[in-house]
Design brief:
The complex is a heterodimer.
Chain A: H1 3-14, H2 38-52, H3 58-61, H4 67-79
Helix pairs in contact in A: 1-4
Chain B: H1 2-5, H2 26-37, E1 48-53, E2 56-59, E3 62-66, H3 79-92, H4 107-120, E4 124-128, H5 131-142, E5 148-152, H6 157-165, E6 169-173, H7 178-187, E7 194-199, E8 201-202, E9 207-208, H8 211-220, E10 224-228, H9 243-246, E11 255-259, E12 269-273, H10 281-284, H11 286-289, H12 296-309, H13 313-333, E13 346-351, H14 354-367, E14 369-370, E15 372-374, E16 384-389, H15 396-413
Parallel strand pairs in B: 3-14, 5-6, 5-7, 7-10, 10-11
Antiparallel strand pairs in B: 1-2, 2-3, 4-12, 8-9, 11-12, 13-16, 15-16
Helix pairs in contact in B: 3-12, 4-12, 5-6, 7-8, 13-15, 14-15
Classes of the chains: A mainly alpha, B alpha/beta.
Domain Aminotransferase class I/classII large (chain B): 63-403
Keywords (chain B): Aminotransferase, Pyridoxal phosphate, Transferase
Pfam family, one (chain B): Aminotran_1_2
């Protein structure tokens, strides 16, 4: 799956978690713009992991702050 | 970092002097001030002026029934336990002033470890200065770089801190979700070391883990299994060895972590294991090596208490009667509880919010009842809980008195 396809899949996965319907761009941050708390992060990460059949460990999550970084990381992980 | 990019090289002019490192705690300070401004008695600075028994103390000047101490088996005032401690103080002094691997291993430490090996019928036992250090030390040491720790999201702080201190990849899964755990285990790259960390009883809600299924899945996936049995030792399982024993999987558990600060009635932590290389932990586990060992009186009380717990079946039965009665009684009164049925000696009463939780906590205290007020972030799903833990020394009459106190306080605060 290329980056664009990963992007569109994650875009649909994020919808139920994007309660305030924030416009999502590559620079959108999870903690700041989307106001995800730790429980939301866990459920959202689990949804992505199940969809792409990958693991995003907490160590990797710590490096991911924005939507664009997430799409990059997933693109890389599912290619491995 | 993002700020720095938009700023010139020259440091910004600061009006209020240098940056106060404590400003990161402002939200917590504000939360506490708001709570106290409502006039409520501070739930986090209670002082017990006198302890009368495992179930009664003078708290902030009032004669109070204790229902939040984890003193499950009431061993704190057992005469044999106290005598063992006094003898050790007389014969070995107040403290060891040394690490277990230098001058801090006394006869009593070895006897305490032997008592644990006998209690669990396992080959190795290692005593730490606290339960927190046992989790911190074992998890951070055995799971290294390139290994994976797969753990329940509701794990105790000591487990999370053990993960944070080590260099392994940390992969949490949804609380007690066997399927979520298995999926994550299966995705771990081939050849990587795997450690699954579970708890027998989860202390916030008092619920029990499906260890039978989870341990089987972990083993099938080639993982080692560590189970924290802090809240089950002494009264769950035929020999009081915990939930893993009760569910028949204790032989497949590689490491059991436990504490002396609950059923055993003193302080300290331990790990028991049948791993043939386990003894090397004594040299490589930093939270074991770089701290002073427990005082002789503490290991003497612990060893005596552990041996008495092997024969505690009557007390155990009474503890279960108390737990069932309190759980059933609170449910009847209309309180929302953490579990549908009583699964352990912890009964968690769910509060609508922190403000009313604190109000209820204070109302109970003025009735003469102490329970734990648990609040985010220690609680799952950001809940406010009144956590009750029963003791085998609570009398039937005390449990009825407790239910009456809950009824009056609950009505006064408007929760039931």
């Amino acid at each position: 799956m290329d980056r664009a396809a990963v992007d569109s899949t994650i875009r649909s996965l994020i919808e139920p978690f994007n309660k305030k319907a924030v416009a999502v761009e590559d620079s959108t941050t999870f903690a700041g713009d989307l106001e995800f708390d730790s429980l939301t992060v866990m459920d959202f990460v689990a949804a992505i992991e199940d969809e792409f059949d990958i693991i995003i460990s907490m160590n990797q999550q710590a490096e991911i702050e924005s939507y664009g970084q997430l799409v990059d990381a997933v693109t890389k992980l599912q290619g491995e | 970092m993002s700020e720095a990019v938009t700023q010139a090289d020259k440091p910004p002019v600061v009006d209020n002097g240098p940056r106060d490192l404590f400003s990161k705690f402002d939200d917590t300070i504000r939360m506490r001030e708001t709570l106290l401004a409502s006039g409520v008695e501070d739930p986090f600075s209670l002082v017990m002026e006198k302890v009368l028994s495992p179930t009664r103390a003078i708290c902030n000047g009032r004669d109070t029934i204790l229902l939040g101490t984890y003193n499950y088996m009431g061993m704190t005032f057992d005469p044999d336990v106290i005598q063992a401690g006094k003898d050790a103080l007389d014969n070995f002094g107040a403290g060891t002033t040394g690490s277990r691997v230098l001058n801090g291993t006394y006869q009593g430490h070895k006897e305490c470890e032997q008592a644990l090996m006998d209690f669990y019928a396992m080959d190795h036992a290692m005593v730490f200065s606290t339960g927190y250090q046992a989790n911190l030390g074992i998890i951070s040491t055995i799971a290294g770089k390139g290994d994976y720790v797969v753990l329940d999201i509701d794990s105790h702080a000591s487990i999370w801190d053990g993960c944070a201190m080590g260099n392994a990849e940390i992969v949490p899964f949804k609380h007690n979700d066997i399927d979520a755990m298995e999926k994550r285990l299966r995705r771990i790259p081939e050849g990587a070391g795997k450690l699954v960390v579970l708890e027998g009883v989860y202390s916030m809600m008092g619920d029990v883990a499906p260890l039978k299924e989870m341990v089987a899945v972990a083993k099938k996936c080639g993982a080692m299994v560590l189970v924290d049995e802090a809240h089950s030792m002494g009264f769950i399982g035929e020999h009081g060895r915990g939930v893993a024993e009760e569910q028949g999987v204790i032989d497949d558990v590689d490491f059991i972590i436990g504490t002396f600060s609950k059923s055993v009635g003193t302080v300290g932590g331990f790990c028991v294991s049948n791993h043939p290389k386990f003894e090397i932990m004594r040299l490589v586990c930093r939270p074991y090596v770089f701290t002073a060992s427990l005082p002789p009186s503490v290991v003497a009380t612990a060893a005596t208490s552990i041996r008495k717990l092997m024969h505690g079946s009557n007390k155990r039965a009474h503890l279960w009667e108390n737990s069932r009665r309190l759980h059933g009684g609170l449910k009847e009164l209309g309180f929302t509880l953490g579990t549908d049925s009583p699964q352990s000696a912890i009964v968690a009463v769910i509060m609508p919010d922190l403000e009313r939780g604190a109000g209820m906590w204070e109302a109970l205290l003025s009735e003469g009842l102490y329970v734990n007020l648990a609040r985010p972030p220690a609680t799952p799903a950001n809940m406010t809980l009144l956590r009750c833990s029963l003791c085998a020394e609570h009398s039937e009459a005390q449990v009825e008195t407790i239910l009456g106190m809950f009824e009056r306080a609950g009505k006064a605060v408007g929760i039931i």
